[in-house]
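Students often ask why we bother encoding 3D structure as a string. The short answer is that it lets us treat folding as translation between two languages. Here is a chain of 90 residues written in the first language.
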Amino acid sequence: PAGVLAVSGDFVVGDVVTLETTDGSCFARGLVNYGSSDLDRIRGLKTDRVLEILGVCACDEVIHRDDLVVICREEPTSRSHPPLTQESRN
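And here it is in the second language, the structure alphabet:
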């Protein structure tokens, strides 16, 4: 939870939440392992402090990478590779 700067809205374990940059831009969505009230209590803290604060450490990650979808809105650069097509794979 060290990377969590703020918590907004009400959610429970297993809800899909939106992750935002400090300027409010959405950059990812994921299934959260902590409810909003607990996450607000542990935000900004190292994982080893979670047990001390909450009395239980449900999970090391707020959102596990397997439950995270990163939303990329950047335009491809001229150096990016073209997509593979049926013809170019042979």
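Translate back mentally: The chain has two helices and three strands. Keep this in mind for the problem set.
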